[in-house]
Specification:
alpha+beta; five-stranded antiparallel beta sheet; 2 helices; 5 strands; globular; binds adenosine monophosphate; binds zinc ion
Length: 110
C-alpha cells in the first residue's frame, strides 16, 4: 500500500527505530510514546482493521502474540506490559494498518 505509513516503514522507505523484524512482523518504537516503553507490532501484510482479519491473518496474529511474549524480556518488558489494538473510529484508530500497541517499562497509570 503506497500511501500507508506502516507499509512504508515495513519497506524501509520511512525511518523507524526497529527493535525486531522477521518474515511476518516488524516491531518498532512509537513516535509519540504514551508509556516509558511504547512499541508497535505491525504485520508486514497490509490489513487496515482487525475486523478484516482472515484465517491467515488470525493464525499470524496468534503466532505474533507468542513472539511478543517470548521477546518481552529482551525488549525491556520483563516486568509486564499491556497490548492494545484500536479498532475503528470510536477507539481512535489513526493509522489504518493493523497494529498492536505494546506498552510497559513502568507501572502503567491506568
Ligand atoms: P492508533 O491510534 O492505534 O492508530 O495508533 C497509531 C500510533 O502510530 C500512534 O501511537 C502514533 O504515535 C504512531 N505513529 C504514527 N506515525 C508513526 C511513525 N512514523 N513512526 C512510529 N509511530 C508512529
Ligand atoms: Zn499498510
Amino acid at each position: 500500500m503506497k500511501d500507508c505509513i506502516f507499509c512504508n516503514i515495513v519497506a524501509g522507505e520511512i525511518p523507524a527505530r526497529k527493535r525486531y523484524e522477521d518474515d511476518e512482523i516488524v516491531i518498532f518504537e512509537d513516535i509519540e510514546p504514551k508509556a516509558k516503553i511504547h512499541l508497535l507490532c505491525v504485520p508486514k501484510e497490509h490489513y487496515a482493521y482487525l475486523s478484516e482479519a482472515d484465517e491467515i491473518c488470525a493464525a499470524s496474529l496468534g503466532r505474533t502474540l507468542k513472539k511478543i511474549a517470548a521477546l518481552a524480556p529482551s525488549l525491556g518488558l520483563g516486568d509486564g506490559y499491556r497490548l492494545v489494538v484500536n479498532q475503528g473510529e470510536n477507539a481512535g484508530q489513526t493509522v489504518k494498518h493493523l497494529h498492536i500497541h505494546i506498552m510497559g517499562g513502568e507501572v502503567l497509570p491506568f
